[in-house]
């Protein structure tokens, strides 16, 4: 079956699913393969659950059913279908990538643009080779703008995403040490993230450029259409005001409104805010709507959240961690008000051969400041020298944490997603 014929079926059944546990009657089920699963083994369950059609790249071990569509590769077919769907739209597609801050920036931009346009955006962090096509296929005919988050852990990945997302606008938040295990080096990270700007340049799109990152600025120099932001130079310029635990931003260029009071923790969110302002300006969103959208945004899902637990103040930033984001979080936490500060830090994953050195560097940073308590969790911290409390996992940490009965403390909780650091609060 050709993609254009499959697309006709999709128009009749415009809901795509890759997980039978969440499949609803009338969905099209794509049987995908992974390193630890084979969706082709669930074809029968999908049909029993009411799937309108099943796309499989394996001969099904059941009787012939006209709802089964055999293809060479189910994932490629999913991506090709997403591309065909994308080609039906003549609207802006804004793609966001970077080492840190992708999801927060995406959420802020989505909220700014949604004040004036019917905007679709990546849900959660469905930002990979499966999530991006699924995001595109969820975009309806009423769309006026789409915001697509792109994650990557190896070179050429973002280049591939651009082939079916076809962004008209591109934004790279920053270039740091994330997924070193997959990339192999910081230079490879820069190359991979730069693939977005290479596409923008070749398609004569618009680059939204973080002028505070010299590598990003260099990447954009041959792009004809650039809109920039930063603390010193750019179409939008602003800086953080340290008046409270929440980020306040003073705008010196780009907005006539001079001050924004956010509900975000950490000055490292400054550039995320400036990026959202830049996107709003590009798409002619009114200044008042930009301000209201940014100031009303409350982070969730363990991202830079401030919580109260009895008399304690919790900074929960446990969605993910890499050397760059961990350093920024600790340095920001040290400047926050409070004399009884506690660090609960989980191991950083996917650092490959650099893991021991990066964890030792983090311990060196921790040593520079005074803390009431420091607890380091997970196997990676056990490989380095430190004087702090160590726990194998969050379960052990939780037992100790509850026994302490801390009062009037400020506590930073951060670690890689697999550490599930938020469970210390259960």
User: How many domain modules?
Assistant: 3
Secondary-structure content class: alpha/beta
Q: Architecture of the largest domain, CATH level 2?
A: 3-Layer(aba) Sandwich
**Overall geometry:** globular
Oligomer: single chain
The share of residues in extended strands comes to: 15-25%
Number of helices: 14
**pLDDT average, as an integer?**
93
Low-confidence runs: none
Q: Cα distance, first to last residue?
A: 50 Å
CATH class of the largest domain: Alpha Beta
CATH topology of the largest domain: UDP-N-acetylmuramoyl-L-alanine:D-glutamate ligase
Helix content: 25-40%
CATH H-level name of the largest domain... which superfamily?
Answer: Mur-like, catalytic domain
Q: How does this structure look, described?
A:
The longest helix is centred in the middle third of the chain and has 17 residues, at 186-202. The protein is of the alpha/beta class and 426 residues long. It folds into three domains: 3-73, 3-Layer(aba) Sandwich (Udp-n-acetylmuramoylalanyl-d-glutamate--2,6- Diaminopimelate Ligase, Chain: A, domain 1); 89-296, Mur-like, catalytic domain (UDP-N-acetylmuramoyl-L-alanine:D-glutamate ligase, 3-Layer(aba) Sandwich); 305-425, Protein-Tyrosine Phosphatase, Chain A (Alpha-Beta Complex). It contains 14 helices and 19 strands. The protein has a nine-stranded mixed β-sheet, with helices on both faces. A six-stranded mixed β-sheet has the order 14-15-19-16-17-18. A hairpin with a 4-residue loop joins strand 11 and strand 12.
């Amino acid at each position: 079956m050709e993609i254009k014929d499959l697309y006709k079926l999709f128009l009749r059944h415009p809901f795509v699913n890759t997980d039978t546990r969440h499949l609803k009657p009338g969905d099209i089920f794509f049987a995908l393969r992974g390193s630890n699963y084979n969706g082709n083994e669930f074809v029968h369950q999908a049909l029993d659950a009411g799937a309108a059609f099943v796309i499989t790249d394996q001969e099904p071990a059941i009787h012939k059913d006209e709802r089964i569509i055999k293809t060479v590769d189910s994932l490629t077919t999913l991506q090709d279908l997403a591309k065909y769907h994308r080609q039906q739209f003549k609207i802006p597609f804004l793609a966001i990538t970077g080492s840190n801050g992708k999801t927060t920036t995406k959420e802020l931009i989505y909220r700014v643009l949604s004040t004036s346009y019917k905007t679709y955006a990546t849900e959660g962090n469905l930002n990979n080779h499966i999530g991006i096509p699924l995001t595109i296929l969820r975009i309806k005919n009423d769309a006026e703008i789409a915001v697509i988050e792109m994650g990557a852990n190896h070179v050429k990945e973002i280049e591939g995403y651009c082939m079916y997302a076809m962004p008209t606008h591109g934004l790279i938040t920053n270039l740091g040490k994330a997924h070193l295990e997959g990339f192999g080096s910081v230079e490879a990270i820069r190359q991979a993230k730069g693939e977005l700007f290479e596409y923008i340049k070749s398609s004569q799109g618009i680059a939204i450029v973080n002028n505070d990152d010299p590598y990003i600025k260099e990447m954009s120099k041959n792009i004809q259409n650039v809109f920039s932001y930063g603390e010193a130079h750019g179409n939008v310029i602003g800086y953080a005001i340290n008046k409270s635990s929440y980020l306040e931003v003073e705008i010196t260029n780009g907005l006539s409104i001079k001050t924004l009071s956010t509900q975000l923790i950490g000055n490292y969110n400054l550039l995320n805010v400036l990026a959202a302002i830049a996107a709003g300006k590009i798409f002619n969103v009114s200044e008042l709507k930009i301000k209201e959208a940014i100031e009303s945004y409350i982070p969730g899902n363990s991202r830079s959240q401030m919580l109260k637990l009895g008399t304690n103040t919790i900074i929960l930033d446990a969605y993910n961690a890499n050397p760059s984001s961990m350093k920024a979080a600790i340095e920001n936490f040290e400047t926050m008000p409070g004399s009884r500060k506690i660090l609960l830090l989980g191991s950083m994953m996917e650092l490959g051969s650099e893991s021991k050195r990066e964890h030792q560097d983090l311990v060196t940073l921790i040593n520079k400041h005074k803390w009431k308590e420091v607890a380091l969790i997970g196997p990676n911290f056990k490989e380095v020298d430190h004087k702090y409390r160590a726990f194998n996992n969050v379960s052990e940490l939780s037992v100790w944490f509850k026994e302490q009965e801390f009062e009037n403390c400020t506590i930073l909780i951060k670690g890689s997603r697999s550490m599930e650091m938020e469970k210390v609060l259960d």
